């Protein structure tokens, strides 16, 4: 996947989310009679600028060169002289409640946008991996809890589960505080059972290890013959000459009995050449295949860009389609947005208290990679990614950090309590602290990004 591909969809994602966030400030400000001077998507040098002919206020709309944010500039006596006849339309002259509404509208619109995105995902529908378990890792928390091969997860704590990804999120959400966690499963015979995960003092986010692997869970994989169902364009398998229908018999002279053995051998050999022997019709042919490498669950693994041939009946066991009606999806989307917002806040708090690793913070490079990957997978996956980022932007902007919307709301709360605005000196010191906090967070995020790239 090209860097330009990732950058393009990163700009699309940030552009959509920032525009909607700033539109919240803009729309509420104008509804409350505040004069808006400029609506900018991006910072820095303007690339495109225009004004609407029928707009009495002649608001300047522009797209700027640095696509990492935006702003809405309003008439304000603190930023320049205001004509006498427009003083009442200045932002600083508004009642504290109106100013708070204008500031809070940005994050609020991010949450509204997340609800819309989740609603779209739910009505379009997605095909997801069914939460079926394989044999748990020996000695793991999952094995000690009695989980068995072909257990299907139904619920984790109070969260219902329908997909493998939902299982992962529920483990983080319900297990963030450790202790004992109730898990409802349907066993291989169709009976519903309760398993108890004894998390104890386990900190599920103390590092970047996937929570599912940390607890010893394995995804169920059927035992299938080692037949190649297809190859990815320009992948290692295609470049070596492997074709759909090839049946792998040996790797480096060792016999291969099922597809899992291929996966394990390839995973353990990133960037190392493998001698692969296949049956192609009546012929036995040898190929030299060098697996590419990628990071997964804090581990570098190999992959060749080949996928197995899965019979339809097995595929139906492994996959589940999740779709809701137009009206049924509305409350589900709202609940999903609420749950993800609370989870984001809890994870942030765990980072502050040291119970979650700062390695979980991602910066623009990682976000760009996810934007590119999700866009490649499909429209609904990309929209789901946008929903998650929109929730994150909403939550982060409400944090009581000066320079963010939440910092301004904190000032307004103090103003309401003391009966007057905070002093210019207090606000200036707050801005300095806010800049330092945001700069530190950005440095941590970029450090994590570059560390992942190097790995």
Could you walk me through the main structural features you see in this protein, from its secondary elements to its overall organization?
The chain has 455 residues and is of the alpha+beta class. It folds into 3 domains: 117-125 and 324-455, no CATH class; 127-222 and 310-322, PDZ domain (Pdz3 Domain), CATH 2.30.42.10; 228-309, PDZ domain (Pdz3 Domain), CATH 2.30.42.10. It has helices at 3-31, 96-124, 141-144, 164-175, 211-214, 236-240, 259-267, 312-318, 329-352, 364-377, 379-397, 405-418, 424-454; strands at 36-51, 60-74, 126-129, 152-156, 159-160, 179-186, 192-200, 228-231, 247-251, 254-255, 274-280, 283-289, 292-296, 299-303, 306-308, 319-322. The strands form 6 sheets. A 4-stranded antiparallel beta sheet has the order 5-4-6-7. A 4-stranded antiparallel beta sheet has the order 10-9-11-12. A two-stranded antiparallel sheet has the order 1-2. Strand 13 (292-296) and strand 14 form a beta hairpin. Helix 1 (3-31) packs across helix 2 (96-124), helix 2 (96-124) packs antiparallel against helix 12 and helix 10 packs antiparallel against helix 11. The longest helix has 31 residues, at 424-454.
């Amino acid at each position: 996947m090209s860097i330009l591909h990732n950058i393009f969809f990163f700009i699309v994602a940030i552009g959509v989310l920032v525009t909607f966030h700033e539109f919240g400030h803009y729309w509420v400000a104008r509804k409350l009679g505040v004069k808006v001077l400029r609506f900018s998507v991006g910072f820095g040098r303007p690339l495109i600028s225009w004004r609407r002919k029928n707009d009495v206020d002649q608001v300047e709309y522009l797209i700027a060169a640095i696509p990492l944010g935006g702003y809405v500039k309003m008439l304000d006596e603190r930023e320049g002289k205001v004509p006498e006849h427009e003083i009442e339309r200045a932002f600083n002259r508004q009642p504290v409640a109106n100013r708070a509404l204008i500031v809070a509208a940005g994050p609020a619109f991010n949450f509204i946008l997340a609800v819309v995105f989740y609603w779209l995902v739910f009505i379009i529908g997605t095909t997801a991996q069914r939460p079926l378990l394989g044999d748990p890792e020996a000695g793991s928390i999952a094995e000690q809890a009695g989980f068995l091969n072909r257990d299907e997860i139904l619920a984790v704590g109070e969260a219902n589960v329908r997909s493998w990804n939902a299982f992962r999120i529920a483990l983080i959400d319900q297990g963030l505080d450790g202790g004992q966690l109730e898990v409802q499963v349907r066993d291989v015979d169709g009976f519903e059972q309760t398993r108890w995960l004894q998390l104890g003092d386990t900190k599920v986010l103390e590092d970047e290890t996937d929570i599912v692997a940390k607890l010893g869970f394995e995804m169920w994989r059927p035992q299938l013959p080692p037949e190649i169902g297809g190859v990815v364009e320009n992948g290692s398998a295609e470049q070596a000459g492997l074709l759909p229908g090839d049946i792998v018999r040996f790797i480096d002279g060792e016999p291969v009995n099922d597809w899992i053995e291929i996966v394990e051998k390839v995973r353990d050999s990133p960037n190392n050449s493998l001698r692969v022997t296949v049956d192609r019709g009546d012929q036995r042919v040898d190929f030299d295949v060098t697996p590419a490498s990628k990071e997964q669950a804090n581990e570098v693994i190999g992959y060749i860009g080949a996928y197995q041939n899965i019979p339809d009946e097995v595929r139906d066991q492994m996959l589940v389609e999740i779709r809701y009606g137009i009206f049924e999806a509305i409350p589900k989307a709202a609940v999903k947005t609420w749950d993800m917002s609370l989870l984001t806040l809890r994870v942030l708090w765990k980072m502050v208290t040291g119970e979650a690793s700062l390695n979980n913070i991602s910066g623009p490079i990682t976000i760009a990679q996810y934007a590119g990957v999700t866009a490649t997978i499909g429209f609904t996956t990309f929209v789901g990614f946008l929903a998650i980022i929109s929730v994150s932007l909403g939550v982060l902007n409400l944090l009581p950090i000066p320079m963010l919307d939440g910092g301004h709301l904190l000032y307004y709360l103090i103003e309401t309590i003391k009966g007057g605005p905070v002093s210019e000196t207090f606000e200036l010191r707050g801005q300095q602290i806010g800049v330092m906090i945001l700069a530190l967070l950005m440095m941590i995020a970029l450090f994590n990004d570059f560390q992942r790239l190097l790995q």
